[in-house]
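User:
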Amino acid sequence: MRHPFWRLFVFLLVAVWPLYWLYQAWSFALGPDPGKVLVERLGLGALILLLITLSMTPLQKLSGWSGWMAVRRQLGLWCFAYGVLHLAAYAVFILGLDWSQLAVELRKRPYIIVGAIALFGLLLLALTSNRYSQRRLGKAWKKLHRLIYLILPLGLLHMLWIVRADLEEWAIYAVVGGVLLLLRIPALMRRIPRIVGAGQKVQQK
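Assistant: Predicted structure:
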């Protein structure tokens, strides 16, 4: 396995945040409504991890370092895990596990449906992220995993519907997401310079 310490570092870095937020909730450091804060932080964490996952390929192209791609699958799985925790926190702290309230919530807050569709897409990607699925699905595997380009806009729409009036932070994520999606266009991806290669050419001159 390549880059084992880098993989471990990324694993620990991403795993610690939900634990830290739970500790903050337990110690009453998240304000009067810690459950709501947990729901928001886990959802935002899932979106940020999705953006980071999408940035791995451009970073690899830019730097030539294979470590970025070595953690891409792990980051994608963590993105799904954060999404599941976001849903679980919503069910516990917002619904109070009262599923009869779900129909009411869906009518009042249709952005929940958008978030659920995005999470279902992440589920499909997580279930097929292994090598067995790659061999089994063949060329269809790449087509399936292009769902990530739909999941990101759905995640951004889900967040936009929630924040509404406070758009400054959302706009940052939207711009970053837009740039990352544009970079997936093959013609643009080929234009990304490789810093390592450029540095070597300069030294040779």
